[in-house]
Amino acid sequence: MLNTNLSKIRPEGHYQNDCWIILMVICFSVFIYGLIEGFSVQYSDIPPSILGYRMYVVHGSSMEPTIMNGSLIIVKEKEAEMIQIDEIITYLCYRSQKPCTTHRVVGIEKWSNGSVGEVSFVTMGDANRVEDPTLVQSCKVVGVVRRIIEPHHVRNITLWLKITVKLVMFFIFMLLGARVYSKKSF
């Protein structure tokens, strides 16, 4: 005969409680992380990096037709010495009106500052007829453009995300309501 101690058996639904607590901790953690990152973007010129990638929305037409106004670009961090002519870079702007600019590298100037070698970039927008008036120092480079998502795709992604978030929130509230209702019925 089995010798079973009934006090060690977990009550029915206890595993559901554990899963619910884990889900709430994960949601709360993501919420707090989002708040922290949101505030950090407001007070700095560079958005947060995720595995060396950053996302920007392009405001302006200087890179058309390659990058349209309103496009989303994904920028990958890259060592300045590895950047080559014809790559598109995002860099901190020399003007205070805009935090970043994205232009094509049309020239590279290398010079030495004592024992240290420095690299600067000559840049130009694809729609511009002249090079940018100021060299871009290597310390100002944020990264190289790796992916361009056109404005109409950005709108589709945004719409999909809005619908998905609403559906997920609806199902979470339905589960929460069902859980509360089931506890009251006993």
From TrEMBL:
Keywords: Membrane, Transmembrane, Transmembrane helix. GO terms for molecular function: serine-type endopeptidase activity; signal peptidase activity. The keyword Lyase does not apply. SUPFAM superfamilies: LexA/Signal peptidase. Coiled coil: none annotated. This is Signal peptidase I. It is an enzyme of class 3 (hydrolase). GO terms for biological process: signal peptide processing. GO terms for cellular component: membrane. Its EC number is 3.4.21.89. The chain crosses the membrane at residues 20-36, 159-181. It is found in: Membrane.
